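Q: Sequence in, structure out?
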Amino acid sequence: MYCGRFPGGSTPAADLTAERPMPGSDDGHRPAGGTAARRAPAVAFRQFVVKLHSRCDLACDHCYVYTMADQRWRSRPRSMPDRVLDWTARRIGEHARAHRLDRVAVILHGGEPLLAGSARIERAVTEIRQFAAPVPVRMTVQTNGTRLDEAFLRLFDRLDVGVSVSLDGDRAAHDRHRRGPDGRGSHDRVTARLRRLTDGYPHLFNGLLCTVDLRNDPVTTYRSLLAHRPPAVDFLLPHGSWSAPPPGRAPDSRQAPYAAWLTAVFDEWYHTPGQQIRVRLFDEIIQVLLGGASRLAGVGTSPVAVAVVQTDGAVELDDTLGAAHPDAARTGLHVARDPFDAALDLPAVRAQQAGLDALCATCRACDVARVCGGGLRTHRYRTGSGFDNPSVYCPDLYPLIGHIRHTVRRDVAALRAAVR
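A: Exactly. Output:
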């Protein structure tokens, strides 16, 4: 997930009725696979993204929150009001206990969540855990890192909150996109904060998120991230769709620039002796290739079990869907009046939990469909046909998965031969 643009003035909380879609509208989320997709059994939400603050102190030009189709952030409160936080905590606990979950995960997010301040963050962590009890809650914060000072690190240490940081590589790679409102790059500030995290609080470090830029050398980018000793790295494809293609991804082109970029990183990662770092994209692809299930959206066909709560209390789907069209993430639900269970019967939620049945005919006929899973839902959108399409990254995902499959099969065959 990205961090966002430094925006304008504050606005009052939106009317609770403003989030209701028009009757009968599915906002392009109609399942592609017919009745099987519509009747897929609902899977309880296990991860909740809580938007503590809707603004940011950076102006990243690739941010899906502020630079793409969905501009509703302008009408949302800057910081989540106390009453909305209370409702959110109660709804999470209600859902976790009703479904007898063994645990849930909560990500404190934004914008930039640290802008909410230490008091509000502590209140959020304390109340969510209190109302979820006896179900344990794993808390993490996703930050751009610019405000991750000693005071916040001590707070997260005391509250047992993991920390994920957005970093796009070395100074040149990072500062190309992640700049402040004054145009200054943020790399030096972020890496200074990262050093304090890794030196003094390594047990809190959850990992790095890096957005792929084809102009950056892939191996140099990867090695620069390794220098910060992250336990895991997420490589994120820039958000886009068939109607608004991502950089370097021409809609009708069969070229695969992102496959080439990620394949170079995969080979460096896979063939480095003693490598302990997790690259989640590669790990999850390998997991599915070996017959397991993926825990990463955009890989495999496991049901998506994530709900987002905006600062005004609106319950939404993955907010990266806002890169497709303005209403793509809307559910019409609000924590003040609706339990999370109310979202489980929505066509959009059923579609993202229906596995292969929810994919378009092209994807269902593909030999890597169970591994690819159609890619991230956001990237399938096309004006006129909604999400009933392959991913705009299909020409990249297919050869990347093919390369990983060939590499893993070769090594599995060698291991089998060695034990005979």
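The chain has a mean pLDDT of 87.
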